[in-house]
Write a structure and sequence with these properties.
The chain is mostly helical. About 75% of the residues lie in helices and about 0% in strands. The longest helix is centred in the last third of the chain and has 41 residues. It starts with 10 loop residues before the first helix and ends with a helix. The model has no long low-confidence stretch (mean pLDDT about 85). Keywords: Membrane, Transmembrane, Transmembrane helix, Transport.
Length: about 375
Amino acid sequence: MTPPRKLQGTQPLRQFRDRLATTVIVVGAVAVLAAILAIGVFLVWQSLPVLFIPLETTVAKLSVLAWGTLKAALATLLFAIPVALCAAVYTALYLPARWRLRIKPALEMMEAVPGVVVGFIAGVILAPWVGQHLASALALLVWPPASALLAGLLWQALAPQRLPFSQAWLWLIPWLLAMGWLALWAAPLIEHQLLGADLRHVLETRLGVDYATRNALIVGMAMGFAVVPGIYALADDALAEVPASLMEGAQALGADRWQTLWRVALPAAGPGIFSAVLIGAGRAVGETMIVLMASSNAALISANPLEGMRTIAAAVAIELPEAAPMSATYHLLIFAALVLFLFTFLVNTLAEVVRLRLRTRLQRLGGGV
């Protein structure tokens, strides 16, 4: 029998490596916290002169930026939340595990696309195309989602047993592609028959609605594409952490798939989904490059989604390099940056607290059943 090797000589080296790794991690964490604190202190210090600027000037400057920020964030979330949550529900609860392990990382990789690339495509390709084919673009936003409901009714009536729900994507994706092609083909015909002219021309001449080529609709679609992966990943994790015994118990009591989803899975994962939406909202509020390249950056207050806007992040990026140091405009922009910093910091902190509480609660539910 071979005697065991003596490891006394390697223990000091291993302890040294462990202590070195721990020290590096602690120093990195402290450095990050110190950097965040330093940024906050700098912004607060540079914002103090705003107290001596007339209130009317401050309100006139910041109200336009606040409205543009909320407008861009709302357009983004209206596009991103339905897409992200529907995808998360399907992949977390119904898609087989082997397919989920392939599809989920692919969707999360979309978040790695740089914002400047998304903004460039939106400003150079998407915005001109939507401006020339407004009716077709609106049809693409409305008809394919509506046709998905029709597809679900047809599947329920014709082939619920022959094709499992977990494999619905095999026919739903071709169906949505076909419905998208149908919308592109039918929209110009319907537009010509009902209006007799281009929809954009009708809006501008007959209804007096201003249309900017780079508007909130373009920003919502482009920024929604960038926000979807983050909301999807967190919502998918929240739904996947719901104990299977809860849903199996509901189905054993007679609940169908739809009732189980709405009355068990979504309420249990509700805080995690709320956290995902909060983080998506924080990303939408703080995004800069997509707004710069996909909107007109017009400083105006308008609820029209076909007009542009200027957000806080875009205003800081555009105006701050040209503002005279220590001028009123400089301090107002610094104050706007402080507001943006505090909002994103608080939103992300709240989202993380909610997510951790959800995980603790689901662990208790899973251990108690």
